[in-house]
Amino acid sequence: MKTIWIYCTVCKQDVAAQECYGRHIYLRRPDLDDKRFYMCPTCGNYVGTHKDGRSLGTIPSPELRDQRKWVHNVIDPYWLGDGHADRAKRKQLYSALSEALGKEYHTGNLNSREECVKVVSCYVRLRNSGIL
Question: What is the pTM of this model?
Answer without folding.
Answer: 0.89
